[in-house]
Fold:
Amino acid sequence: MDNLGIVFALLGAAVASLFSGIGSAIGVGKAGQAAAGVVTEDPSKFSKVLIMQLLPGTQGIYGLLIAFITLSQVGILGGDADVTPAKGLLYLAACLPIAFVGLFSAISQGKAAASGIMMIAKKPDQMSKGMIFAAMVETYAILALLVSILAIFGVSAL
Structure:
């Protein structure tokens, strides 16, 4: 099968964007549920809780970025789309860190953001502390993004 390498690389790009996107959707949804409750009681807190709700959405962006980088490196977005099966598997492996860490960290970040939103409900002046709690989870998504980027460019250099 001549296109097996491209199939593996496309699978990696799809997994990166799908899993991290699913995680972000779940995380943003969890935080949104908490935010809706707070805004129902006090509409003036909308902007503060909206910022908190958006935090788990970054992992989906990271997965999309990895998908775009992968697609450009393998020639799907322009260039020669000739990838060996071995390289295709390497691209797939390179996409896995952000796929799985993005999935689980976004869900966890959504839970942390929801707790921060509840903190804003009672003490709006403590918003920065709630953001820090949620942002700590982001660290691991950024590390996974970095690993995926380095791995993709490493495969390209082979």
User: Anything to note?
Assistant: The chain has five helices and no strands. Residues 4-41 form the longest helix (38 residues). The chain has a mean pLDDT of 95.
